[in-house]
Amino acid sequence: MKLTHLIPLLTLTTAVYAAPQAFDFKDPKGVNNAVFKLDAPLESINGSANGITGSVSFDAENPGATTGKITVTAASLTVPNPMMNGHLHSDKWLDATKFPEITFEAKSLANVKTEGNVTTAEVTGKFSLHGVTNEITAPIKLTYLKDKLADRVPNMKGDLLVIRANFKINREEFDINKGQYTDKVSTTIDLSLSIAGAAVAK
Predict the structure, then answer these.
(1) pLDDT tens profile 88-115
(2) Are 35 and 192 within 8 A, CB to CB?
(3) pTM of the predicted model as reported, rounded to 2 decimal places
């Protein structure tokens, strides 16, 4: 085979077997956030958290192989009412001093569907809160934005990976006041995650 014929073949092989990229979710803009809602009979509590970090391995040629870990600083969870906010972080609820991190470690994706640069799937992994770890499965959407990092963070070149997920957990399954205060604090917590990670060009 002539060298001129071999070069395109090598280029194609390299593209097919391109290594996964590591996306860093420590957002320099501070925009990444998680939103939570508890809708009890007497009160509806809404809050958010922005202390988000983590790393996700993503291969645009094989999105189904995505793995990674996202961490939320428990002390970054806030609600509008200052007194409630204090209770939230106390040892009666999250105990943010003893358990400073809330984490989700993705292990596998199922029912993976990709159209263009958007992949939808069901992610299964380990969710850790209040010193307890449970396996959960949740729907997820991954949007891969090649060469778009500079559009979000000036003077930085690279790719973006945007993750969106919505799921529910039960606070009692994480040993948070089992059977108590259910009229004001729902046992079911709705969680919504919307975060962007960066793979900086080398």
Answers:
(1) 999 999 999 999 999 999 999 999 999 9
(2) yes
(3) 0.88
**151 CB contacts (<8 Å, ≥6 apart)?**
none
Per-residue pLDDT tens over the stretch 36-61:
999 999 999 999 999 999 999 999 99
Residue 126, H or E segment: strand 118-129
Mean pLDDT on 8-24: 64
Cα separation, 22 vs 107, in Å, equals: 15
For 103, the token pair is 């984490």
The b/e string for 49-84 (b: 16+ C-beta within 10 A; e otherwise) is bbbbbbebbbebeebeebbbbbbbebebbbbeeeeb
Domains of the chain: 19-200 (2.40.128.110)
- Which residue's structure tokens are 């002390």? 75
Task: Please state, in angstroms and rounded to a whole number, the distance separating the CA atoms of residues 63 and 20.
Answer: 9
Question: What is residue 153's DSSP assignment?
Answer: S
Return the C-alpha torsion angle 19, 30, 106, 117, nearest 10.
Answer: -50
